[in-house]
Amino acid sequence: MVENHLVDSQIVGARDAIDEKLIALLRQDARMSVTALARAVALSRTAVQARVARLERDEVIIGYRAVLGERTDAGLRAVLSVTFSQRPCHPVVEKFRRWPEITNYYSVTGPVDAFMVVRVKNAQELSSFVDRLSAVPGVGRVGSSVMLREDFN
Length: 153
Hints:
Layout: H1 2-11, H2 17-28, H3 34-41, H4 45-57, E1 76-84, H5 90-96, E2 102-107, E3 114-120, H6 123-134, E4 139-146
Antiparallel strand pairs: 1-3, 1-4, 2-3
Helix pairs in contact: 3-4
């Protein structure tokens, strides 16, 4: 009877301690092999593959990414604050969503509508980027702060 309850909770998408441990392990190393994950949670490869597939299907895990190390020739990074002049904001964001300079984008509450992290070659490119972003219809105001260093990863 207990086994059926566990199976039912897995079907409806409930997460248990093993799912949480898998998520934590994948946050630390998204390239961790299924074999290593299985060993870490003491389950079979097949069971871990099924759990990860379910977490992806349920959109608990929506993607994997590479985290790049800092390089001295990496250029300049800046945090931009964006205030939109039209609502809803989504159609405006779609106009610049795939610009390669944008590495992170955050919709936020408060007097600013969004923050984005951008990477460019130098201050002149940052100025050009801010001008290009400011010219997008629906973008009201753009502020920029150059990142001096990153203390936490």
